[in-house]
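## retry 2 of 3
previous attempt timed out at serialization; input unchanged, resubmitting
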Amino acid sequence: MTSLFLTDIDFGILRGLASFRYMSVAQFIRAEIARDTKHLRERLARLLNAKLIARTDKAFDRAQNIGVPCLHYLTQKGADLLNEDDRFNVKAPSRRMTAFDDIPHRVGVVDVHLAFDQWARATDTEVHGVWRYFEGAAREADQPPKQATAFTWESWDDGTEFGEAGKLVPDLMALFQRRNDTEARGVIFEYERGGRSGTPNHFLAKVMHYHDAISAGAAEKHLKIRTGVYIAVVFSTQKMLDEVIRKWPDSKSPIWKNRVFLKARTLDGSFAKGWVTPEGNMTNLFSINP
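## retry succeeded, writing output
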């Protein structure tokens, strides 16, 4: 397919993008695909020139007042190259960036995915599947793909018709199974950076939707599992997390118990540690089954 000589790092880059879909230079380093940033950039440039990968333009996150790195992703040519190996069945990303503000959000979602993946490998946990909001199934030619994480729940309308009661589109969903689990479990991850306003109002507006989804067992039905699904929310700042805890509606309700976990974004330490409940009590993710 290509006369370009590919090194182990090149294949690591392609495999990393097959797993995480979008990655910055720092995320490649964090995933231990490469150790030297200068050499990594050289290999990325070669893959870009060979059109095996592509990348987003540089951006600036006005809400956080920080620069946003370029995100690299597989082209169809790169996916086809991986698929020459029977172990792969990769497609190029189906949902590209549709808004400027989506880029910094996508960086955070990939950071969460990386941390979850590293926790899984460190604890000998098998990950059966991962779905992200920026992926989806094809629909009509004039419509964007349906988001892979979208799920709904239903209710009786006026006692006669069965209608949609609610819908959520989490950032990330996964099925995993620890060594001592007898069946697969599910987890929903949300990464909240506050959008353009830099406030948690958008997330707080979704809290009661999660209340209804838990009551309806909607995530469990979507993932086709019997066990309760964890809902883990990572906030871009500690300030935002503190505000959410102060404003969480009916935080003492038993419906949140062992189901909802909150944390400020961090790239260090154990991913499963340092979470809090909606009441503000410290806890560990995955330590108690829903």
